[in-house]
Amino acid sequence: MSAEPLMQLENIYQIYGSGARRFTAVEDVNMSLFPGEFVALLGPSGCGKSTLLRIITGLQPPSKGKVIYRGEVLRGVNFNSSMIFQTFALFPWLNVIENVSLALQVKGIEEPERTQKAEDLLDRVGLDGFESAYPRELSGGMRQKVGFARAMAVEPELLCLDEPFSALDVLSAEALRNELLELWTGGKIPTKAILMVSHNIEEAVFLADRIIIMDKQPGRIIAEHRINLPHPRQRKSPVFQNQVDLVYAILAGQTLPENEELGTAPGEGGRTRQLPKVEIGDLTGLLEYLTESGEEKYDIYLLEDELGINSDQLLLLTEAAELLGFASIAKGDIEITPLGQTYAEASILGRKEIFASRVRRIPMMRWLLTMLKASDKQQLKWNVIQTALSLEFPPDEAEVQIETLINWGRYGELLVYEDDSETLTLETSLQKV
After folding, report:
1. Closest to 198 in 3D by CA, of 311, 301, 98, 77
2. pLDDT tens-place string over residues 357-373
């Protein structure tokens, strides 16, 4: 690996809006990428991973900071890079070879060299024989292979992958990961470095030499973790699973004292903690599983396979369990609390009562219930709450938070929501409390 970085980010910020509606999506990010590296950007949804890719490729200028590529400050599009998105982004009216040839045409390569290069690229990704097929005739995995061939057609020094396997079924994704790794480790592509965005911990450990771990609110780097394992890596080996466990430990963090864990209400000083968007049934299932296992502590990473869910969803569930006081987390382990066990073993009505008592402690829910109680007829319109939360979160996240508040409030019988009129009403039993 070269001692000189291929690309550097220096004090990168991405800020949206202004005044009271000013949001920091990415905060003070510094990182380097060296030739010969496969690096994964890993973190929860909304932490700014894809934003950083767009900044690195020059598709989006940062609000502050600079991108340095081969020692020069990047201005505009980085023509030494290429991007592969999670959606296939193929032109449906062009066949396979035409889709790949288009990138070569833009580069100024004339026929017949253009066709020869396109055929060679398709052969490298295993699509020889499908040159005349149209995207609609191909499986998801094959369409993404066309995307890989098209991205490599411009012979990028830096190949950026934005969750390229997330739209594929499990088997197709696994096959394509292995094929990408074969091309990379075998030197069959001209790329000097690969930077991949992922929220799949096992995928990052399987592919990357180094993992840059991010957190959200605002998006920032919290750790870097080097994977010193030779390829090919065996997922079931103890050393591989230990690496996965270590990354889970960083992302899951550790349960903090209650005043820090819960955060503050909107409008108050300090950090308003986002509610994890989870289904109550899924949370209940997790707590039941932990209770029935009989284990005092459980490695979080083991739950991914045992429950059949991805790491992003699993981390949201563990975050919800922690926030409600049903579980505590430390060093990548989850431990169900006595209250969590009581909830898991309670009747349907008992669970609702326990959930209601816990969710009312959360500052954001307490804030909403207070607003409802103080309003005319104890009712508020969706857009009123959205306007208030838009001072705390970006518009899309504000909407997610309202949906989660409504779902949690309904389950705990704290509020009623009428979809037709988009009206939230305080539950009758609380109106005189």
Report:
1. 311
2. 999 999 999 999 999 99
First-to-last alpha carbon distance for the chain, in angstroms, is: 66
Query: Residue type at 125?
Result: V
Q: In what order do the strands lie in the sheet with 64-69?
A: 23-33, 7-16, 64-69, 72-73
Q: Residue 162 and residue 296: Cα distance in Å, rounded?
A: 38
DSSP symbol at 347: -
Length of the chain: 433
Which tokens is 182 given?
Answer: 């074969």
Q: Which two tokens stand for residue 94?
A: 């062009």
**pLDDT tens-place string over residues 135-194:** 899 888 888 888 888 887 878 899 999 988 887 777 878 888 888 888 888 888 788 999
Give the number of other Cβ atoms within 10 Å of residue 70's Cβ.
Answer: 15
CA distance 311 to 166: 12
Query: Minimal CA–CA distance to 426: which of 390, 374, 389?
Result: 374
Beta bridge partners of 223: 213
